Structures are given as structure tokens and as C-alpha cells.
Amino acid sequence: MDLDAVTKQSALHAKPDGLTLQYGTAGFRTKAEHLDHVMFRMGLLAVLRSKQTKSTIGVMVTASHNPEEDNGVKLVDPLGEMLAPSWEEHATCLANAEEQELPRVLLDISEKAAVNLHQDAFVVVGRDTRPSSEKLSQSVIDGVTVLGGQFHDYGLLTTPQLHYMVYCRNTSGRYGKATIEGYYQKLSTAFVELTKQAFCSGDDQRTLKVDCANGIGALKLREMKHYFSQGLSVQLFNDGTEGKLNHLCGADFVKSHQKPPQGIEMKSNERCCSFDGDADRIIYYYHDADGQFHLVDGDKIAALISGFLKEPLLEIGDSLSLGVVQTAYANGSSTRYLEEVMKVPVCCTKTGVKHLHHKAQEFDIGVYFEANGHGTVLFSKAAEMKIKQLAEELEEDKKRKAAKMLENVIDLFNQATGDAISDMLVIEAILALKGLTVQQWDALYTDLPNRQLKVKVADRQVISTTDAERQAVKPPGLQEAINELVKKYRLSRAFVRPSGTEDIVRVYAEADSQENADSLAYEVSLAVF
Ligand code: NG1
Ligand code: ZN
Using a 6 Å cutoff on CB, does residue 66 contact ligand 1? Predict the structure, then answer.
């Protein structure tokens, strides 16, 4: 490691005095102008992680649903997963080291993590469409090269596409080709195969309106839509040609405001969906004949998918386990529906996809979704092999057909992370195969009215939680106060937790009516002070 060269280069990406940042749920995120040094240093860290794992590591420059002025960076581990927790700590140390401490911190990390410094390193970089992203990704590359790492810059990519590239590169191409063309081919082939037998009742059924949050999703969906245009026609809105990224549009806006985005024309009963700014989340919605808005969120996506998967799994007659993973934000009705009607086991984990992803790996087939629309379905190696083997069998019967269908489903889901484009194609395939309208899908169960609030406090870390964030253990008395408030309402539930991505405390409440959910959330937010 040429530490003199690092020091010299680092001076060109100097850390502002006194600035401390933390590697949170989705990496580092803050105003773009404060991130240059972090980018450079994450380039350094990616090289060390690559040497240690003897694998390609990904670096994605994005701040997802946050405003256009923000930016962020996260590292992607060898199998396309989020960075391992012990390395999150290294990332925080490295980002906060003062200039003169940088060489020592680098050596410290190398020693603690037993990095073989003679090992080669390879890093792949991707970025979203923010005006600041190009320059910031160049700073990442500066960090990679000063430590002698090789790199490939994919340029503009959705976050899940970068995860896909990392996964492909570390599995010798068995998962797919590590090119944008490879991604389009893999997904669209699976989609076309899956929907071959779908009954389509006219063109309306095959059209979907997509709000792209004025982000990277628009660029990539526009490139990709020709690959599957026979099965599905997508109409792009908020495609970045006029509006501002994530401004009054996108999945996060629609979910948190529970209203349609600007810039999309919705006719009654038309199926619409929104991506977020880096296209790793998706949610659906529609207006009914009375003009009422209906949100079909991540919980309902999980319900649709698990219901769909149950049938072919039953058909192949193998006892592959199917489970659903949610967070505390999952609507109470969805949990009840999954457990009592669908009879699938449901687990609850802490917020943040790394927790859900990890838990989902405990099942042969693990469906995980956050209510905000981030999720995917993971198939264990054993399940994949069993399904592939059955799909190859000579006898052309129902069992083989079911296995074939599952085989395509495996290919259509991004196995590395939640992916708006991939999830959209799965959902569209299921709706087509089942002949379901968005209203029929929405009617699987009725959401309990709910409310989320943000509370600004001096130090959000004074709140700590347990039981997958559903109970507050600190400060003393807070949970008791929440329990008392919850008792006042029917079908009620509430919890608070410090956000991992913003300097706020989040309050969530649900109850038998919107008015009650609103009051409960408000009362709980007062108890937080
Ligand atoms: P925080 O800020 O920790 O609540 C938010 C989302 C998560 C996840 C991350 C990463 C909610 C309530 N929280 O986390 O689900 O998506 O951002 O983007 O939606
Ligand atoms: Zn995102």
C-alpha cells in the first residue's frame, strides 16, 4: 500500500473539518457537497474489501428517494448483498478520520480484517442520474486506483442493476452476464416465457403506467421495454426530461403521502406504479370509479406473490418451505392475511433490507418486502436445483409445467436485492396469468388505516428498541406511555424508532379508522419528547 500516494491524493479530496458521518441503513447519505472525501475513501475501502474477499466489490453512488441535492454511497458485497456489518464500522471509521490519521486507519482496518495486501482487487462502480453523481463516482475511482485496484465503471445504472453485476461477476457468469444487455436478456426472456400462456383480455390489460420519479429507472426502462413489448406495454411518466428527481413523485412520495404523484394522468381503475429514485422500490396504485385513491404497497405485493407461488409449489409436491419476511411497518391486515388465510409463516425483522434479506435466506423460498415496496424473493440453492431437475423431466405433465413456471420465476426475480423493474415484471406476469385486475388484487385484504410521522429530537439515539423495533426499551417510561395510548383505540398498534437514514425519529400507528390512526400517531409523537 503506497500510503504517501494515498495522503497526496486524499488532499485533493479533503475532509471538511469536524464533519462526522455514519454508515447507516443505506450507506452514507447527506448533502452532495459534503461527500467528496467519503467517496474517495469508499474507493479505498472497496479495494481492501475486494482483497479480503478475493472478489469483485460494488460501489453505488445514489441517495435513492432523497432530494436531488443529496447524494450517498454504499458498498455491495460479493453475492450482491449489503456490506457486512463489521465493515460498516470500518467504513464509518475511515470516513471520519482526519487527514493525517488516514494512513493509520487504513493499516488498522487491514490488520483487523486480515487483508492480504498483495491480493488483486477489482471494483465496479455505478451511479444514478443526480447532477452530482458523475463527479462523485470519479472520486470513488480515484480512491480505487490510488490503492492499485482495477475497476470497471458502469456509469448510469439502477442500484439493483449494480447488485446484479457484482453477483454475476462473482459467480463466473452462472447467474447471468455482467452487462446491461445480459440483465435485459435474462429478465425479459424469463418474463416472455412465463407469460406465454397468459390470457389477455384486450390491450388495456397489457398497459401499465410507470412513474419513474424523474430518475435512473426511466432511462433503463426505456432501453429495456422493447425486449418485452409483446407481453407488456409500459408508458413512462416523470421520465426526467422535465421534472426534478423525486420531487412530488416516486414511490416514496406516493407511499408517504398516500396520494398519486404529479405528472401522471390516471383514469379510473387504471393500473399505475411508481419507482423510487434509484429503482429499487416499487408500489402500485389506482383511482376507483368514485375517484378514490388506492395504494397497493409492498405488503400487498408480498401477498400476491406468496399466493401465486403456493400453487406450483403444491403441484410439484416437494416440501419446500415458503416464508414471508416483513418489518414492523407491515400493515397488521397483511400479516393476518398471510398467517390466517394464506397459512404461510411470517417473520418480522428490523427495518433495512439487509435484515430482511438475511432472514429470507432461512427458507427454501423466502419472500421479503418492506411496506414501502423494497423486496424480492430468494430461492435457496437446494430449491433451485430441485426445481430445475423437475423441469427437465421427460414426462410432460402438470408437475413439470409447474416446475418450469417456477424456473422462470427464479430467473425473473433479482436474487441479489429488491429491484423495481424485476418486481414489476413479476407482478405483471402474475396478474396476466391469474387474469386479475388491480382492484381484485387490492381486494385480497383491507389495509388498516395507518399514519407515519417524523419527529425532530435533539438526539434520536436516546431511543433504543427491541423485538424487531416494536418495543422501546429506552428512554425509561416511553413504552409504558405508548402502551397506554394504544389501549385507547380499537385494532391499534404503535411504535417509535430512530431512523437509520435521516436525523429524525419515526412514529407509526394504525387503528380502526384514519382519524384514530392519526390521533394515535400524534399522541405517540408527543410522548417522544
Ligand atoms: P429509516 O430511515 O431507517 O426508516 C428508510 C426506510 C427503510 C429503508 C431505508 C433505506 C421506512 C419506514 N424506512 O429507513 O424501509 O428503505 O430507508 O432506504 O420506510
Ligand atoms: Zn431506493
Answer: no
